[in-house]
Write a structure and sequence with these properties.
642 residues; alpha/beta; Rossmann fold; 7-stranded parallel beta sheet; 7-stranded mixed beta sheet; 20 helices; binds fructose -6-phosphate
Amino acid sequence: MLKSRIDKSTGFEKRFENAGTVVYENSIEASKAVAKEIADLIKVKQAQKQPCILGLATGSSPKGLYAELVRLHKEEGLSFKNVVSFNLDEYYPMEPDSINSYVRFMKELLFDQVDILPENYHIPDGTLSKEDIADYCSQYEAKIKAFGGIDLQILGIGGNGHIGFNESGALQNSKTRLVALDHITRVAASNDFSGLNNTPRTAITLGVKAIMEAKRVILLAWGERKSNIIKASVEGEVTNRVPASYLQEHNNATFVLDKAAASKLTRINTPWLVEKIDWTDELIRKAVLGLALHLKKPILMLTDADYIENGMSDLLADSGPAYDINIKIFNKLQNTITGWPGGKPNADDSKRPERAEPAKKRVLIFSPHPDDDIISMGGTFKRLQEQGHEVHVGYQTSGNIAVADDEALRFASFVCDYNDKFGIKSEEAEAIYKKAVAFLKNKKASEVDIKEVRYIKGLIRRGEAQSTCYFVGVPDNQIHFMELPFYETGTIEKKPLGEKDVKITMDLIEKIKPHQIYAAGDLADPHGTHKVCLDAIFEAAKRLKPKKFMKDCWIWLYRGAWQEWGIDEIEMAVPMGPDQVLEKRKGIFKHQSQKDGVVFQGSDSREFWQRAEDRNRETAELYDQLGLSHYAAMEAFVRWKY
Ligand code: F6R
């Protein structure tokens, strides 16, 4: 069994964590460990000639686990003949062969690939009539009981703390039933259903009571976006607002986490509050900045008493008094601020984030989607250009799935009208337009666009990216559309990173031989386009490392998704005045297809330019709160050393 961090008999770390947690380097290792525990259990039950009763979940979290179980079956002969499984939930209504049904998910990812007997797996039936659901649910629970209960239950966790589809508010003794889905849950699922309107409003879920009766429970959570809810579930009070917190009262439940999902746990985020630690420079910085922000004091106003009262007296004893530590951290933070992201020519650069030489640098900005460059680092982008560097942009993917259907039609019809107006023979254009109209008229939710529509959508985004580049001043020959193949599936689900993706990335780096690379550093996102794009760059950089030009190539990571780097992580902060903020806004506006009700809005109703402005303003406010200069906005970067 996975060794969990909390030992209930000694109460170690019980001050903070009230449930067992195990943290792995990444979700792949974690999934392997969980698969091993399941495999061991199946084998023990086989030896006892007993069935092994598994409770299974769907969603993105268990995908790696199922892949490993399939591998164990195919390569190591693990048999599932004695496995009886009960899935947690199913959307309602839902046809089993629908692309989004959990029946289909389970068959494709696990059941059809192992030797489980078809009569042995159970998934709530999404095709029942409403009147029949209550009886069906009682029978579902009765069947589990008849098998002697669930031996091992796998769970994921929703952003609101749901387990199964027991949303916030579900009671601890809730039964298996039809439930209404939370808005947050529907938003999370809406990508798969091509928009919120097509996303089911209800589901059948195993109740909390049945989950709590499982003999062993393992909850899987990956990625930074789960970190807050994990902290609330494990360290917070047991409350129906966070159903996963009920697991604190289970006597054999473990939260299996990757580093990112665990990152907000007290012992990881502020380890000095939990045990004696070795104070590295990074930890000192993190602790002091955290202390100042917590006490709402500028760094230089922190006192010895502040350190002592907040669990940092050993740091004070080692490196104090407070005044000395404060000054050190203040200077460090001040040195991160620069209006010269490409380095300041003829200046002493010993304390600056970037080198002064060469004064004119070749810069390559990688943008995973066509608008990440301007959204995430538009101010820096413009400055680099204005300060005379040779700025290139590599648009890694076409971004073609994030364009609304009517936009595609509008552009196709524009081409026909344009041809018509200028007397250009336009039969082919007409044919493409008609084909697109016919397809889109009957397009079903989550149906993949035909090739022509995908091209049109890609072209729209390409034009918008070009327009941003012209706005910034980047010439055509420095704009590179990479169209990495992993992205081109036409669906949300992408292919894994492939050799071709790495090769295209290497070729561009080699061609430009940049002194600076900027990349979207969404390290924690276990799925997602940004992470694959980043992996392509990391892999390319690793392979190119022996080349001479790479010795001069520094890689700066900006945060592409909606979160910013932690204040203690930032190594370069590029400030902006109010006018520069407005300029950046104009640059973002070039992406018209991404304005006003975009295809993938997510749970945040702000438009992209608003999100970008809020985030850059918040970073500047943090610097201000800590006692440094007050700017209108700041873009933040971390250097990746390879
Ligand atoms: C799925 C289920 C849900 C998911 C949860 C997390 O069967 O019951 O509770 O486990 O929504 O989903 P992912 O893993 O996609 O983040």
